[in-house]
Amino acid sequence: MKKGFLYIILSAVLFSTMEIVIKVMSSDFDFHPIQLNLIRFFIGAMILAPLAIQHMKKSGFTFKKEHLFFFIITGFLCVVVSMTFYQLAIVYTKASTVAILFSCNPLFVVPLAHFLLKEKLTKRTIWALIISLIGILSIVNPFEISNPSGIVYALLSAVSFALYSVVGKKGIQQYKCDGVILTCFSFVTGSLEILALILISKINAVSNWLTSIGLDVFANVPVTQGITWSTLPSLIYIGIFVTGLGFAFYFLAMDVTSASTASTVFFIKPALAPILAFFLLNEAISANTAAGIVFIMIGSCLILFADKKPAKLSVHRPKIHSHIRSNG
C-alpha cells in the first residue's frame, strides 16, 4: 500500500507541473502549442509501450483490424481535439486556471455517460455537478473576464476529454482491453494524426487559406523548430516525465491499490498546481480561485464516495474514476 501512495504522489506532482512547463516552453522557448502536442504524446506513447505490452500479455488482448477505427477515434478526441484546446488554453490564460478547469473533466463524464451510455443520474451526482459548477463559475468569474479565449479553450478541452473518456469506456467494455492499452494506442494514433495535420498545414494553399480565415495558429506548424541543447531538458521533462512517467505511475498506483484510490491524483492536482504556479510563475491565487478549488474538490469527493458504496446501491453509478481521467 505504501508503494501505491508513493506512485500517487509522484503522479500528482508530475501532472501538477504540466501546465507550468508548457507555459514556459510556449512563452520563453517559443515552441508552437501543436508542435508540443506532437512531441510530448509521441514520447509518452513510447514510455507507456512496455507497460501496455505487459498488460496485453496479461489480459490476452491482441490487436485486430476492427480495433484500428476505435483507436483512431480515441486518439483524435484525446490528442488532436482535447489536447490542442488544452495547449491553446495555456497560451491564452494562466497555467493554474487551466490546471483547475481541466481537472473538472471527470465531472463532465457524468452527463455524457447519462446521454450516451444511458447511465442513470443520482441525487448525489446531480449535487456534485451543481457544486462543481459553482466552483467553475467562481474561478472563471464571468463578471471580470477581459479575454475569455483561454477559459473557453480550457473548458472545451475538459469537455472533449470527457467525451474521450466515455467513448473509451464503451470501447473497453466492447473490446476487452484496459486503461493502459487504450491510453498507449490512443497516444500513438493521436500523434500520427497530428503529424499528418501538421504536414498538411505546410502546403502553401492550405497555409494561406488558414491564415486568411484567422486560423494562422494552425498554419505551417513546425515539427523540429526550437529543439536545441538548451531546450532539450524541458522537452525530456514534459515528454518522458510528465506525459510518460506521469501516466505510468498513475496506472501502477491503480494496479497496487484501486481505481478509486488512484483517482485521488485528480483531487491533489487542482490544489497543488496553483501553489506551484504561484512559486514558479508568480501567478496570484485569488480568493475566488481558492473558493472554486474547494467547491470542485467537494463535488469530486461526492462522486468518489458514491463509487465506494456497496454495489447493490450503486449499480448504475458512472465510474468516473476510470483510467482515462488523466490531465494531458
UniProtKB/TrEMBL annotation:
Primary localization class, coarse: membrane
Bilayer topology annotation: Multi-pass membrane protein
Keyword annotations from UniProtKB, A to Z: Membrane, Transmembrane, Transmembrane helix
Transmembrane segments: 5-26, 38-56, 68-92, 98-117, 126-143, 149-167, 179-200, 234-252, 264-281, 287-306
Localization: Endomembrane system
EamA domain boundaries: 3-140, 149-304
Highest taxon of the lineage: Bacteria
Gene Ontology CC annotations of this record: membrane
Pfam family, one: EamA
Similarity remark: Belongs to the EamA transporter family.
Name of the protein in question: EamA domain-containing protein
Organism: Bacillus smithii 7_3_47FAA
